[in-house]
Design goal:
Blueprint (H helix, E strand, L loop, with lengths): L8 H7 L28 E6 L7 H11 L2 E6 L3 H10 L8 E6 L3 H6 L3 E2 L22 E13 H7 L19 E4 L5 H28 L3 E3 L2 H8 L4 H5 L6 E5 L2 H7 L10 E18 L5 H11 L2 H6 L1 H4 L2 E2 L8 H6 L11 H20 L1
Parallel strand pairs: 1-2, 1-3, 6-7, 6-8
Antiparallel strand pairs: 3-9, 4-9, 5-8, 5-9, 5-10
Helix pairs in contact: 6-14
Length: 366
């Protein structure tokens, strides 16, 4: 089950026929220390990550030059699968730092003890609401909001106001308009389920989904199918003749539509229903048993540095967590700020996630 955010920017770029930057360090060999001669320390530091990790090459090279470390990025598919591998290899990790565990899986990672505590330099500049582990086994790196997106042209043509809240989605005027991802197989699908849990409580969410099903919600396996095939407002959806003007995606999807539009539009063709959102926070941690612990610490310091934090939005289409990091104009002009996303405590998610998904599946899919 995919239960961690694998952001959609790369997939959206692919649907629009462009490529995103690949984050890979130089290929220089590791210079391991000689036990007898006291030779040089390891100069390669390995970051294990989901496939959506990206960083501008010049930003990464600046870190390498300043630190003396060469960064190797080991992309390992979906973050849930990557985390499973680190749990299985606990104590003998594949790298030095793991990036990509989010608040939906945080308790699982911490309970399995795969991280060594480290308080990153610059952590004091991270917004305190994102510091969910007081023992500093993980460091907050980014945040992103899973939200319903809408096709502006459809609602303008129908002279119908787009829905803005979860309550709106069960109203008759929005019947048969929404497509969402399967909560058992998709990160945004799970996030949307958690938004309903946060809004209606551990009992009320079930009644809400019964009403949403009665109102014609369509469920597909994953984000790619929902956004780039079924959603009428995206570039990919238009090509595929999608007929659903509402889709569960991300608050930063509209800026991506602008960035990769050909020609680039003056205004985003899609909007965000700001009262439907669940916030995901991604973390990185120093892996227990890391071969290059000092390099891993330096890499974590880099990930919360202002340089990296301001590079992230246009590379991974996520928001920085550092207080003074500035968003690019593309985000401030075409994106939205979600003031009050729904929230569920990581401990509550860990305790109930599997049962919630089973119950959701029986209510909505079967």
């Amino acid at each position: 089950m995919s239960t961690t955010r694998k952001f959609a920017g790369a997939a959206l770029a692919a649907a629009l026929g462009v490529t995103t930057l690949s984050a890979c360090g130089g290929g220089s060999p590791d210079k391991s220390a000689d036990a007898e001669s006291g030779g040089p320390k390891p100069k390669t530091v390995t970051l294990v990550s989901h496939d959506s990790f990206n960083v501008t090459d010049t930003v990464l090279k600046e870190f390498e030059q300043q630190s003396g470390y060469t960064v190797k990025v080991l992309k390992s598919g979906d973050a849930g699968a990557a985390l499973n591998q680190e749990i299985l290899t606990k104590g003998s990790p594949r790298g030095d730092v793991f990036f990509g565990v989010d608040n939906t899986l945080l308790s699982r990672a911490l309970d399995n003890g795969i991280f060594t505590p480290y308080e990153a330099k610059g952590l004091a500049e991270v917004k305190p609401e994102y510091v969910l582990d007081k023992e500093h086994r993980v460091t907050p790196i980014d945040s992103g909001d899973i939200c319903v997106n809408y096709d502006k042209a459809y609602f303008a043509e129908k002279k119908l106001a787009p829905p803005q809240t979860l309550d709106d989605l069960i109203k008759p005027e929005y019947k048969n308009l929404l497509v969402t991802e399967n909560a058992a197989t998709s990160s945004p699908g799970l996030g949307f389920l958690l938004a309903s849990v946060g809004k209606y409580g551990e009992e009320g969410w079930k009644d809400y989904w019964s009403k949403l099903k009665a109102n014609g919600v369509e469920v597909v396996d994953g984000w790619e199918q929902a956004y780039n095939e079924r959603f009428s407002g995206s570039a990919g959806g238009k090509k595929a003749k999608g007929d659903r003007p509402l889709v569960v995606s991300y608050a930063s999807s509209p800026p991506v539509e602008v960035l990769y539009g050909e020609p680039q539009p003056a205004e985003a063709p899609t909007g965000v229903s700001t009262g439907t959102c669940f916030r995901q926070v991604e973390f990185a941690g120093l892996l227990k048993g890391a071969k290059n612990e000092e390099g891993g610490k330096a890499l974590l310091d880099f990930l919360v540095s202002k340089k990296f934090q301001e590079d992230m939005p246009l590379q991974m289409f996520v928001n920085p967590v550092v207080k003074d990091a500035k968003l690019p104009e593309l985000f401030t002009k075409h994106g939205v700020v979600i003031e009050k996303p729904e929230d569920v405590a990581p401990q509550t998610i860990a305790k109930n996630r599997e049962q919630w998904v089973k119950t959701w599946s029986s209510l909505v899919v079967k």
